[in-house]
Specification:
With about 425 residues, the chain is mainly beta. It is about 5% helix and about 55% strand. It has three helices and 20 strands.
């Protein structure tokens, strides 16, 4: 019996891919064209790739019928142990459907995911968190190929062989058939007259060719072909089961993002523009939210502020005033990030502002006056986040409103530490 294992294969500039496991693809009717779409869900879908090749992954998300709101999901992609996570959104379109129809409709993700494959053999793992759906490898030509050699008849389940004694018992005991050696038999046949019926029993020689052998190979069934479906082109892999697949492609929630920031600071009062550096971190909350992410965040930095000017103070006369303030700004608050399936993710935040300051004041030829203070206020910010590498780039515009208490000379110098700042940071995800 001949069993053939089939794998779906595509070619992109010499590259191929094969779908592992027993999976039946969907057909998606996208406006005026029909495409082959491979199912993905919270489990692990594995593809064997042969590069080099450039491709894109078009994702469809299952949306319940009648739902008009966009559905947010997370796509986890792992190519040779290098995981990437994409947060995308999909919305149902009445011109896109499954063929034949299912209980759900495919919502198309507007932007395909890039996939670049280097030379040689590779493994691609895909999974979807938040819903189920399917994926199409765009720009690939689909063909079918045999993936495994036919097993021998000895390895196939066969019905029991007929008893060997049955063919021996078929010829009746006929005294006409001599028990002598074969050589005299032709002579006996020549000597027999045409009317003698004794020549007919000699023609029972087919006993040596058993007829039941073709029946030992039962025709292949569809179920048997699926059981030996190949994991790679030209090879059958018994380990292509969900229990043996690596978990690298499974969706990993980011617990913490942290990194340094640097930016310029413009005070609102008489203090001069300056530089600020520090460290910021955020912890996403484990909430199932559609379209946005909520996180708590904190930031701490270092900002020198100073001014030098001539001042006329009633009762004190005219003199030069010098103020040097070293400010350690801290923010503790909440940040909401909008996940819209775009390359960048806008966000907004609000926080409690805390300024720890040490100020030295020189005025009117008096000895230097040192003031230490902790001031509380509010902070608000907005910016964008661009996923890149093991984390992402962050650009933020922030406003802080605080006021320090600088003692007896507070009416001469600038007590307002309020400022507007523009920051850039790189956050590493953990």
């Amino acid at each position: 019996m001949l069993l053939t294992a089939l794998s779906v294969v595509a070619v992109v500039g010499g590259g191929t891919y094969a779908v592992e496991g027993d999976v039946t693809p969907f057909t998606v009717a996208d406006h005026t064209k029909a495409v082959i779409c491979h199912p993905i869900d919270g489990g692990d879908r594995v593809f064997g790739l042969e590069g080099p090749a450039n491709a894109k992954l078009q994702v469809w998300v299952d949306v319940a019928g009648g739902v008009k709101k966009a559905v947010a999901v997370q796509i986890s992609m792992d190519l040779d142990g290098k995981p990437k996570t994409y947060k995308v959104r999909a919305k149902a379109d009445k011109k896109i459907s499954y063929e034949p129809a299912r209980e759900v409709v495919p919502g198309k993700v507007a932007r395909p995911l890039p996939l670049k494959v280097g030379p040689g053999a590779h493994k691609l793992h895909l999974s979807m968190t938040g819903s189920s759906g399917c994926v199409e490898l765009q720009g690939l030509t689909l063909v079918e190929t045999a993936a495994a050699p036919a097993p021998t008849a000895a390895a196939l389940p066969t019905p029991p062989a007929p008893p060997p004694a049955a063919p021996v018992a078929a010829p009746p005991a006929d005294p006409v058939v001599p028990a002598s050696p074969p050589a005299p038999a032709p002579a006996a046949l020549v000597a027999a007259p045409e009317s003698e019926p004794a020549a007919a029993p000699v023609a029972i020689a087919p006993v040596a060719a058993p007829e039941p052998m073709p029946a030992l190979e039962p025709p292949p069934t569809k179920g048997e072909v699926h059981e030996i479906k190949a994991a790679e082109v030209g090879a059958v892999r018994a380990e292509a089961t969900p229990a043996a697949l690596p978990a690298a492609a499974a969706g990993k929630r980011e617990l913490l993002r942290a990194g340094p920031y640097v930016g310029g600071l413009l005070p609102r009062g008489d203090l001069r523009p300056t530089l600020s550096v520090g460290l910021t971190l955020e912890a996403p909350l484990p909430l199932a939210l559609s379209g946005f992410e909520l996180a708590v965040y904190g930031a701490g930095g270092w900002s020198p502020m100073r001014q030098q000017q001539e001042a006329i103070i009633p009762g004190r006369g005219q003199g030069q005033v010098i103020q040097n303030s070293l400010v350690l700004p801290f923010d503790v608050g909440a940040r909401v990030r909008f996940v819209l399936g775009l390359p960048v993710q806008p966000y907004a935040s609000a926080a409690l502002a805390i300024d720890v300051s040490r100020t030295e004041i020189q005025a009117f030829s008096l000895p230097p006056d040192h003031q230490n203070d902790v001031a509380f206020g509010v902070a608000a910010a907005g910016g964008v986040y661009l996923p890149a590498g093991p984390g992402g780039l962050l650009a933020e515009l922030r406003y802080r409103e605080t006021r320090a208490n600088l003692g007896a000379l507070g009416d001469v110098v600038e007590e307002r530490l309020a400022n507007t700042s523009l920051f850039a940071a790189y956050l590493v995800a953990f």
